[in-house]
Design goal:
Strand content of chain A: 15-25%
Number of strands of chain B: 0
Strand order of the largest sheet of chain A: 5-4-3-6-7
CATH architecture of the largest domain in chain A: 3-Layer(aba) Sandwich
CATH topology of the largest domain in chain B: Helicase, Ruva Protein, domain 3
Distance between the termini of chain B: 70 Å
Distance between the termini of chain A: 76 Å
Order of helices and strands of chain B: HHHHHH
Mean pLDDT of chain A: 92
Radius of gyration of chain A: 22 Å
Largest sheet of chain A: 5 strands, mixed
Largest sheet of chain B: none
Shape of chain A: elongated
Structural class of chain B: mainly alpha
Oligomer: heterodimer
Helix content of chain A: 25-40%
Structural class of chain A: alpha/beta
CATH topology of the largest domain in chain A: Glutaredoxin
Number of domains of chain B: 2
Number of helices of chain B: 6
């Protein structure tokens, strides 16, 4: 192979590598731009992203599909999050008050040490199901960027509302009614 | 000779330092090797509550006598591999270590070859076969003939 041909092959290889990296970048940016619940902001009721996660305390897993036909409040929390502690009694109260009507509250613990999370759950006295998503696998599908965040899923498995940040008694009650309707 | 001895000493000292760091890690070095899960930076650059939680855990495990690998393994079990600032040197993640070294090697070799060819091109004389019998470079025969005619006219 002569020098000119070798140079041409080298240049073609370099252009190929750069083009490949560019395609990867575009694919990554375009693919990660919208979460599964993004439609909620446009007034839609997107299907709640499914999950099956280990229990925080005890054995076994809990899947969202286990509660199909019930209204579900999915609350994302961590033990180091102060608003999570402030809203904890409200969530427990709502669960006790509405469970007879077909409401389930699931607490999803993430980005947290499991020992701290268990101690936190004992301290605030939660009795509803708690699951552990240490690596934050479902934070992306739910577009959770900070804790706490709370999602309200109706009996058909559609997300009808979300609350970014701490819930209040009023916002919690109003959105639970939407999910139970 | 003294420089060579220094290099040898350094090379011999590196594994010993790495072993000491593995057995008795400091919080400072772990802060540079662990990520804060909520802020996307290493612990040393973060004061977020999640970073402080991991910092406290590392401090407790160091006091309990854990090695660096043991502390990192426990944190990976809790948070996943994303808690490590550097990818592990195994499996597919090994590529992240090998590719930059490979790229640096290829770049160094290419620069070396180019510099060698450039310097040789400047130093070398024109090849002997390109010189005519009179020690000069041969011209085109037509040009040579025209030159002869022009010179003859001036004589």
């Amino acid at each position: 192979m002569n020098a000119a041909r070798l140079k041409l092959v080298g240049q073609a290889a370099a252009v190929g590598v750069v083009a490949g990296l560019l395609i990867l970048l575009v694919w990554k940016v375009a693919g990660g731009s919208e979460s599964e619940v993004e439609g909620l902001r446009r007034g839609e009721t997107p299907p709640a992203p499914g999950f099956s996660l280990p229990r925080l305390t005890g054995d076994g897993e809990i899947a969202l599909d286990d509660y199909r036909g019930k209204a579900v409040v999915v609350n994302f929390w961590a033990s180091w999050c102060k608003p999570c502690k402030a809203e904890a009694p409200l969530l427990e109260h709502a669960w006790r008050e509405h469970r007879g009507r077909g409401l389930v509250v699931i607490g999803v613990n993430s980005q947290d040490l499991s020992s701290d999370a268990r101690a936190f759950a004992r301290q605030v006295g939660w009795t509803y199901p708690l699951v552990r998503d240490g690596q934050g696998d479902i934070l992306g599908p739910y577009a959770v960027s900070a804790f706490p965040e709370t999602f309200f899923v109706n009996r058909q498995g559609k997300v009808v509302a979300r609350i970014d940040g701490e819930v209040t008694r009023e916002t919690l009650a109003a959105n639970i009614e939407r999910a139970l309707a | 000779m003294r420089r060579l001895a220094l290099v040898v000493l350094l090379v011999l000292a590196l594994p010993a330092a790495a072993a000491a760091s593995e057995k008795n890690p400091t919080l400072r070095e772990l802060e540079g090797e662990l990520m804060c899960p909520t802020c996307g930076t290493t612990l040393e650059l973060s004061n977020a509550p999640a970073a402080n939680q991991i910092r406290r855990f590392a401090r407790e495990r160091i006091a309990a006598g854990d090695t660096k690998s043991e502390i990192e393994d426990k944190l990976v079990a809790e948070f996943g591999r994303g808690v490590l600032a550097s990818p592990p040197k195994e499996g597919f993640d090994l590529l992240a270590w090998v590719l930059p070294l490979l790229a640096a090697g290829v770049a160094a070799a290419t620069i070396g070859v180019l510099v060698f060819r450039w310097s040789r091109g400047r130093d070398s004389e024109p090849p002997a076969e390109e010189l005519g019998t009179n020690g000069r470079v041969d011209l085109d025969p037509a040009l040579e003939q025209r030159l002869e005619e022009e010179l003859a006219r001036y004589e």
